[in-house]
Amino acid sequence: MTAPCRRRVPAWRWFAVAVQLPALVIMAAALGADRAPVTTHFVRRPGWTTTRLIASPHATQAAAADGRHAYAISNTTVAQYDRATGRLVQLGTAADAKHLNSGFVHEGRVYCAHSNYPAEPPESEIRVFDPATGKLTLLHRFKDPPGSLVWCVRRGGDWWCCFAWYRGDNARTVLVEYAAGGLEREARRFTFPAEVVGDWDGMSASGGIWDGDTLLVSHHHVPVLYRLALPADGGVLRLVEALGCPFPGQGIAADPAGGLVGIDRPHRRIVFAERE
Q1: Interval 43-57: pLDDT, tens
Q2: What string of H, E and C letters represents the secondary structure of 124-148?
Q3: Residue 186's CB: how many other CB atoms inside 10 A?
Q4: Are 108 and 132 in contact (CB under 8 A)?
Q5: Is 100 exposed, middle or buried (0-12, 13-18, 19+ CB in 10 A)?
Q6: What residues contact 91, with CB distance under 8 A and at least 6 apart?
Q7: Exposed site from 20, 53, 149, 226, fewest CB < 10 Å?
Q8: Residue from 129, 97, 94 nearest 111 by CA
Q9: Residue ranges of the domains in the chain?
Q10: 131 φ/ψ angles, rounded to the nearest 5 degrees
Q11: pLDDT tens, residue by residue, 108-119
């Protein structure tokens, strides 16, 4: 039998592939961002389990809720849903919205972390969606922020804001307390424990809320919640435990009906969860 003829590949074709390979690798990584392996270095104790789902194409960054509504947050939009029926009520956005992150409901309005990520230097803001007007407006712009704002919450009248860094710089992620009810005076600053930073897979603390006297902090793409406590001294948060949850990362919020609300980003769903 005559062996098949093998055509020589011209050298210029190999060169073209070599030149394009880095771009193809970057594209593949971007397309696979929502399909990262579900891994964590910690053994997760029983935490929260799913009670209900609401499908939303906007469930890509975070979710929040009040007594009547659920909110899905994407990079540029806050989508309001009737939580009883799952019906879309309205959408709020702004022409200059770039990267909304997490959100929480306070006195009938949704407060959202917003940044210019991945642009540098980082710019960070808090924006507010008002269901009464349907508008997404600026509340506060941070001057020389210590990173990209990924989540913010209120506790006892004070603001707690988490500013993130990524990849080799993610240990620079910092939680800042602003005192006296405003956002101008920094009171304290905390970094995250090394074992938690090492578990982030090059990402950062994508969501966080207060749960009593401790914080619950979410991963970027792994269903784990880190319970963290303020240190007795020093500026490094203390890891208390790692807990399971149905949220593959991103922003979380407390549900006033009980439990937590977050998102299943790969499947574009708002997720309601209760304690196991």
Answers
A1: 999 999 999 999 999
A2: EEEEEEECCCCEEEEEEECCCCCCE
A3: 12
A4: yes
A5: buried
A6: 58, 77, 78, 79, 80, 134
A7: 20
A8: 129
A9: 41-275
A10: -60, -25
A11: 999 999 999 999
Tokens for 158, please give them.
């004070």
Q: Of 104, 110, 102, give the one whose Cα is nearest residue 164.
A: 102
Please give the structure tokens belonging to residue 45.
């104790």
Q: Which CATH number is correct for 41-275, 3.30.70.60, 3.30.1330.30, 2.120.10.30, 3.40.50.720? A: 2.120.10.30
- HSE at residue 151, side-chain half, CA atoms within 13 A, is 32
Structure tokens at 197: 């930073």
Place of tokens 């394009």: 20
Strand-pairing partners, residue 62, are: 73
Q: Identity (one letter) of the amino acid at 27?
A: M
pTM of the full predicted structure? 0.85
Structural tokens at position 96: 């200059």
Instruction: HSE, CB side, 13 Å, CA atoms: give it for residue 12.
Output: 0
Cα 106 from Cα 122, distance rounded (Å): 26
